[in-house]
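Appendix B. One record, verbatim.
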Amino acid sequence: MVGRAISNFTGITQNVIAHRLMGKWTPDTTTFDELVLQERSDDNLSHPYPFCLAYQIDVPLESLGTPAEWQAEWKWDGIRGQIIKRGGQFFVWSRGEELVTDKFPELAELQAVLPDGVVLDGEIMPYKDGQIMSFNVLQTRIGRKNLTKKILADAPAAFFAYDIIEYEGQDIREKPLAERRAILEGLLKEVNHPNFIQSPTVEFSSWDELTEKRKLSRSLQSEGLMLKQKSSTYEVGRKKGHWWKWKVDPYSIDAVLIYAQAGHGRRANLYTDYTFALWQGELLVPFAKAYSGLTDKEIEQVDAIIKKTTKEKFGPVRSVTPTLVFELGFEGINISTRHKSGVAVRFPRILRWRQDKEVEDANTLEDLKALITAP
């Protein structure tokens, strides 16, 4: 938030501001002009490229043409990032434009082995003993200022490279994917570091074969598949038709709304942020929050019910008499000692309002935990 505010105030891009705020400085020894406004020779060295993003596939696979025109990869559940080595300096950026070099010392080891003038696009993944671990493992170290030896040992990270977008100091985004991939493969063989891994392609000769292989996604800690046209260039942002994401269907559970909070902006007068619970015996135990998935009309209807059924107010939050059941979808689920429910779900959102169900018919915590071992 500070970086964004300074960027808005000065007109300097946010990724430059983020880089300038890094390092050892104090307000006692550094002025604002020195820290933020003065140009530095190494600013351009740190700049990441805008990420190329994919659309969720919404067309029949057969309409894409022949399988030979496409590259399939697993869609990993980690932190999308770029690794940069320029001018002997090394930077790791997240897709959220956060400089995270110091948060992943395992990746900093690559500074010594990567050639100069390289920018890599990939996924920061929890990886140990040749096995990908769940995203929940990576979450244990996100946001921590002090990375202890135990944390690094329990949740080690590696970089799974998808693409190479700068090589020998040249921007190669206009080269076709197949050519960039060949360059990446050569670089991986040259570097040969255990924390630098090529994200594997999924071999297939027919769309039916790929459909079957997609069913393995969750067993591999993957969210599904990526489909990339071999002739595609590396675009800025989303450009429909060249890159598709084909995610597996979400987990789902029927839950009860027990708390609500007002939204923001044009929805500040409506209750749009909800806390949901599941049954444990005769108690409703909260397990997830969600605020997306309803239509404007449904939000207004739910808002009216919340205001009529409010039991207590806690600042901006209202507790309500349990009367509403919703089907929630989410991408992942793990055991968690940090949550009262004992589980943590990833990317929860509302799939539909179950007006056909009574509160008593909602799912239990045991139902939710059973999904952890479901295929």
